Each structure stands twice: as structure tokens, then as C-alpha cells.
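Sync notes, pocket subgroup
Present: LS, DG
LS reminded everyone that the earlier model was apo-only. Rerun requested with nicotinamide-adenine-dinucleotide included. Inputs:
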Amino acid sequence: MRYQDLPPFRNEPLTDFTDPENRRAFEDALGRVREQFGRTYPLVIGDDEIVLDDVFPSVNPARPDEVIGFVANGTAEHAAKATEVAYEAFERWQRTPAEERAAILLRAAELMRARRHEFSAWMVYEVGKSWVEADADTAEAIDFLEYYARHMLRLEEEAPKSVAQIPSEEVTFRYIPLGVGAIIPPWNFPVAIVTGMTSSALVTGNTAVLKPAEQSPVVGYHVAHLLWEAGVPRGVLNFLTGPGEVVGEAMVDHPKTRFISFTGSKEVGCRIYERAARVHPGQKWLKRAILEMGGKDAVIVDETADLDAATEGVVVSAFGYQGQKCSAGSRAIFVKEVYDEMVERVIERAKRITVGDPANPDNWMGPLVSEEQFRKVLTYIEIGTQEGRLVLGGRALDIEGGYFIEPTIFADVPWDARIAQEEIFGPVLSIIRAEDFDDALRIANSTEYGLTGAVYSRDRERLDRAAEEFHVGNLYFNRKCTGALVGVHPFGGFNMSGTDSKAGGPDYLLWFLQGKSIGGRRA
Ligand code: NAD
């Protein structure tokens, strides 16, 4: 299989839920998944499935009485064992031809396509995604598999041709894998990000220890299972669950870990960065740390903008998946000429958002993912009432004991307020007034983050300026600041949003490889 022989990459289409047949298929998947509630999930280390007595429940955040599954409470010893097993498996896996590894990813994409609604249904129940959000998450996972398979084949073919030749030597250049990767993803894209982070590490010839977030371990298990089914050998992908501070930390610290691929909060990312730098006894390399962290993303609207489109973009960016996206537009910056009108429009539009159990497709917003997240958001709302003017929401909603919070909007927020600088990760929008476009750009760049941003304007010159000066990894004009497409909008941020990698982009796999240069003559 060669890169040229594959059909060109294209994004997986989203499901049209206005079609009654698709709705029925999704309902069926919700039913099938529900029948599997309450199962106990093992750790998987090499060929061993380890069922522990010590388990923790993963619950439905819309109905916390409902247990999705019981998950093993792994320990630092399990992390050490899994890393050793992955280290041994690396011996063979690194020599598996790239075509074989790419073929496994393509097979996984096929399997996921066939069970697409089931993966989405698990997310509706385990992390509170609406049908549409869950469907986009699964589609993105399929995209990662298709994209990285092609990307690996292309690297393999192009690397040798990328060096200059000299008559006196036979020179060649190729990329080789690194070793064992500690894969530590967040819960908010529990299929897409887990699939992307794991498949990128594996297709490049590395072996992996995957530990999904505590809030989405069941979904994580199903992704790992799909990869094994597609042909990833057991020891090549090991699966652990348990507390991040225990299992994740032990994975990061282990001397046989060669790299850490992490997506999550700034706090944990910074901690991993520091720990990864420490060289432990017996360690033969400096660990590479690929860290994707948080955001405090802004949508700017100026007086030339299409205000209808801007209103929609601001609201969807802020409240999609309850604001629990690293790309969420949690700040809206309006220039003074349109400030009052935009505040009114955004409030009116946000009032129409329906909140409730996401298993019901009429609900556009679901619950916060956990009680901890729910409490954190309420604390920020409390802080916000001191810092800005509460113009919408602000309360928890009592629906079946779930972790629901109303869409909440603060207006007249100073640019340097805590709710304008810190990532809240919930349905809370801070609206900030700007004197003019220059001021808006300054405010947009005023946080320590630099992940995504959007500008609504019809002024070409200003957009050109924003392209230069708005310092974010993913910038969008006249559209929302969420919803990056694999291969189209390579994704990842600047500054405290991470180590500047671009998932789903043309150089991403190089993070998991090292170049080997061979010169001289063989005879
Ligand atoms: P988190 O940092 O709490 O946890 C992320 C992962 O790290 C989890 O698997 C967790 O178990 C593990 N972990 C926790 N403590 C650890 C430790 N001491 N050592 C090793 N691992 C540890 O983040 P979260 O709440 O799961 O996810 C939300 C965060 O992720 C937000 O800040 C969001 O912006 C960010 N995020 C970023 C991107 C991106 O591409 N930049 C994408 C999605 C989410």
C-alpha cells in the first residue's frame, strides 16, 4: 500500500439528525449501550486482563445515580508493569513496516464507522454530550485514523528523497520511532482525542501505555478495544485506569518512558513538563513532552460585522458542549459602537438554549461532566458576580440530580478580571467592551493562553492585521472559534496553551519520530 494509491483524505461527513432514519439508528445505539451499563472494566497489560476488586464507578453526569461502568483503580505498580511490557513490545513493533501499521489504522477507521453511533452513545451517557456534539467527536476520531495513516505513508516515502545526494556516498534519511509513550488524554473529547493521541503514537512505530481521564474511562476502554480488534498487538497498546496523580504520574516518571503525549489542563501540563525533565537512574534519554493545554479563547466583533452571524458564532462558541472545550469562546470582545446591541442579541439568543439530559436530542446543552467541575464553575460564577454584571443565568438547575448549570453571561467584564483571564471550562461567557479594533486585539492577546480565536468583521485590512497580530494557534474569520477539522485546521495553541504541536496537521507525526541519517558507502 502506497500513499498515492489511497483515495485523498476527506473529512467524515456529520450525521444529519433531521433524517428520521438516522434518528432511529441513534436511538437504537443508545438502547444497545444502555444494556451494557454496570459492566466491570479491566486493566489490560500485555495479554493480561486484570480485574481488580478495587474499582470506581463512572457515572452519567445527567443522572449521577446511573453507573455507566465500574473501572479498575490502577496503581503505580500497574503503571510500571505496563511500561515494562510496552518497552519489550517496542523491540518488534518498531520493525513492523509502516504500511502494516497504517493499514491497522485504516481498519480501525472502518470498524469505527460501522459502530459510529455506539461510540457517540457512550459519550452521551458518560460525559454528557448532545447527539450532535458526540457525533462530531466520533467523526473526528475517524478523521484522525484516516489522516495519520496517510501521513505516515507519506513520511516513509518522502523522507529518503528529502536529503541532497553527493556522488561519493550513498546517503539516505529516514524517521524512526522513539520508544514507549505515556498517553494521557482529557475527558472532553473522549473518542476523538484518545484516538488521535493513541493512533499517532502507534502508527509511527512507538508502543503505548494509555490512561484515559477518570471521567471517561469506559469510552476510553472501547477505543482501546477497537484498536486491538483492528490489529494492534496487546503489548503494543496497554490500557490503564486510575487516578491521574497516581497512575499518570508513575507513567510520566518511569525511566523507560521515552515520551509523554498529554492533553489537559495547564496546571497538570506544567507539572508533567517539570517531572519529564528529571533524569531517573537507568534512563538513557531525555523525555520528549508533547503537551496540549487550556485556553481562554476570544471572539472579537467590530462595527462592520454581520451581527446576525456574529451573535450565532459567539453563542455557539461559548456554550457548545457546555463550554467544556479548550477552544470554547469564553470571552466575547465587542467594540463600543456595537457593544450594547451585541450584548442584547447574545442574551436573547442564549435564552433559547435548551438544557437537560442530552439523551433527549431536544436538549442542546447537557450537564457539566462531574460534580467537581460543577462546583468549580459555580465558584467562578460567584467570583463573576463581584467582577462583572450578571445578565443571564448564573444558577444550577435541579434536573434529576444532574450537574446542570444555566448558560451564564457576564457583561461589562474588565479585561483583566479573573473570569476574563482564567479558564473556567463551563457555560460562562465574559463580555468585554473595547474602545476600537486595536483595543479589541490587545484584549484578545492579554491572557497567558493562545489557543483559538475568531474575528467577525467585514474590514479586510483589519482581518489582515488580525492574521498577523492575534497570537493564537487557530484563528478564524467570520465563523465560530470551535470545530477545527482534521487536516483542514491543524489544531494546537501557543504560549500556555501547549508545546505548539498541531494535531491533525502535516508535521504532527514528527513529534513521535526521530530522524536517522545514513551516509558513506556500503561497499
Ligand atoms: P486534567 O489536566 O485534569 O487531566 C488530563 C489528564 O491528566 C487526565 O487523564 C488525568 O487523569 C491526568 N492527570 C491528572 N493529574 C496528573 C498527574 N499529576 N500526572 C499525570 N497525569 C495526570 O484535564 P481535564 O480536566 O481532563 O481536561 C480539561 C483540560 O484539557 C482543559 O484545560 C482543556 O482546555 C484542556 N484541553 C486541551 C486541548 C488542546 O488540544 N489544547 C484539548 C482538549 C482539552
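DG: Residues 298-486 form a domain with the Aldehyde Dehydrogenase; Chain A, domain 2 fold (CATH 3.40.309.10).
LS: The first strand starts at residue 39 and ends at 41.
Action: DG to write up.
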